[in-house]
Amino acid sequence: MRYIRFAFLGALAVVLIAVAMANRSMVELQLLPDELASLLSFQQTLSLPLFLVFFGGIVFGLLIGFVWEWLREHKHRAAAAERKTEVRKLERELKKTQAERDKDKDEVLAILDQSA
């Protein structure tokens, strides 16, 4: 299975390098459209190779997806934390109840009851 993963990653690397080599031409990215930039008198441009725009878009999309999913699963994480807190509370209560039950017993019998 490990060799299949390495083969897949190698093939993916070859494809990504081929895409990068085929799209090395420089492109100019503008922050705002020309009309809006002239209205606001703020013109920001950036020249990058086209493959960086492709790969940057992919990475940006993945980051947005990860953040979106993390926010969406907040209720599940909160519920799990609440259950964990409840379990700890019940375990403490159980130990307290067992200690009260075993306070009049012989120490050896109390230890045997706890281990069972």
UniProtKB/TrEMBL annotation:
InterPro entries (UniProt xref): LapA_dom (IPR010445)
GO cellular component, one term: plasma membrane
Species: Salipiger thiooxidans
Keyword Endoplasmic reticulum: no
Protein name in UniProt: Lipopolysaccharide assembly protein A domain-containing protein
Record keywords: Cell membrane, Coiled coil, Membrane, Transmembrane, Transmembrane helix
Domain Lipopolysaccharide assembly protein A as annotated: residue spans: 24-94
The keyword Coiled coil belongs to this UniProt entry's keyword annotation: yes
Lineage: Bacteria, Pseudomonadati, Pseudomonadota, Alphaproteobacteria, Rhodobacterales
Pfam families: LapA_dom (PF06305)
Chain ranges passing through the membrane: 46-68
Coiled-coil positions: 80-107
